[in-house]
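User: Can you predict the 3D structure for this chain?
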Amino acid sequence: MYRQLIDVIPAQETLEGGGIRVNRPFPTPAADWFDPFLLLDEMAPTTHAPGGKVVGVPPHPHRGFETVTYMISGEVEHRDSAGNHGVIGPGDVQWMTAGDGIVHSEMPSEHIQTEGGTTHGLQLWVNLPAALRRTTPRYQGLVSSDMPTVRGDGWLAHLVAGELFGQTGPADSHTPITYAHVTVDAGSAIDIPVPNGFTALAYIIAGPADLGEERATAHAQHLAVFDRSSGDMLIAAPAENAVQCMVLLGQPIDEPMVRYGPFVMNTSEEIHIAIDDFNAGRMGKIPAAGGTTKIHKPQEHLRS
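Assistant: Here is the predicted structure, written as structure tokens:
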């Protein structure tokens, strides 16, 4: 039995950080969030000329959730106010638990800046339950060889987190999720088992793909949303093309959520505290990275 495909949402192109072009399926006016997933950005392929202008995400704060950066090509360098530092390349992941509050930056690596190259990746934000919102910040730098690649008949899955076909991804997530980069050969299909009640999403990187028992079409840069009933997620590639997608399965937290820019909490009052803590420097800073702009409080009451 297969889960029903209930929506296909086109990503919206926007700019982030220092001018990175991203394709964002959520949050947008068409789709806010899919508990426990708060945001998904595909950092569009960007070619950097040797010694050219550096376009990345300069220092900025977070509190109350986890950020997951997965690279398809190129390299990104992470630094944060807890002293963590790492460079990730194709198939690698940096998993940051912002928790109580942290300042971090994600920039093209020194190699990309000097030698040039193309960067392409995704960033996912994963919510935290109220009891863990202010947990101690943590950084996990995972290389591609840490992650199992599960192979089937005409498909493979590069598993970052959670369980899939008897394999377990290396990322330690506070919220139960499965996150995988899936490739389906032309004319093949994959049936992905999904725990009952879990949110089930597939973001199409390269397609089009045929989804669900009805084989509805979802094109590249579209998010497929499946219902929460029991059953597998069916992803098929037509005879004309292969499919690449990110599969997101997650256990809903089902708690109130309020967010404002880089902060995600359970109440408006907690958002105001986060802004005060950041502006007062209590989330730290990245040495030699320069200052960060203060964040102004919202002028009206925030809605969950």
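The CA atoms of residues 74 and 119 lie 4 Å apart. The chain has one domain: 5-250.
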